[in-house]
Design goal:
The structure holds two protein chains of two kinds. Helix content of chain A is 36%, strand content 23%. Chain A is of the alpha/beta class. Chain A has a single domain (17-139), classed as Response regulator (Rossmann fold, 3-Layer(aba) Sandwich). Classes of the chains: A alpha/beta, B mainly beta.
Chain lengths: 140, 82
Amino acid sequence: MDSTKKSLDGTDVRSPRVPIIVADDDIGAAAATAKSLSASGYCATSESKGDDVLRRVHRSLTRLVVAELYIPYGEGPCVVTALKRERARIPRLRVIVHTRHMRPVDVEWALASGADAIVYKSAAPEVLIFEVERLIGEER
Amino acid sequence: MIHDSGAVRVPDPEMRGDPVDFTDAAFVRWRVIERDARRDPGSRGDRCLIFASPDMVRRVWRFPPAWRQLSDSELETLSWAT
């Protein structure tokens, strides 16, 4: 199923059912974000463990991951860093850091990990929706 | 070194030149820096632009060399590029 919504300039935007993984060690937060994205027409599922996120990315089950910044996985402290290592093998993989961590050092960590965007959890829900659309829509 | 300019949080290591500030049509304040991205995993180029607002940070890979000369509305449009 596709969804149609308005872009910021008022034109219709059609979003394909690109699978999105929402990764957050706060299970409730992950589920709420996935529900918000699904309500906007995306096919979003949630994960709370970094290793499960990587496993699904390895199986090419997504093109976009929305992840909290410091989610550990088996070999390191931050799943975002591990995801960016996948870039060589999965060049179309995009990562949005959706985080409560707003210190400048956190922003630098996210950018140095290769994040395509950072959206603060304090922002209105549509900020994340529009950012998802920007990144998913870039190759249309 | 990282600077915290009011509510707009942007890192500035290896930035090229001074940041550019603008306000978009929704009156949101943005700060733009050019970042050396060669060491960032998944880099799509040597440099990128970082657009930072109180709500979010965007990375834009495709931008004109003379981006500093763009108007506020042109910078807002550029912020939606990838």
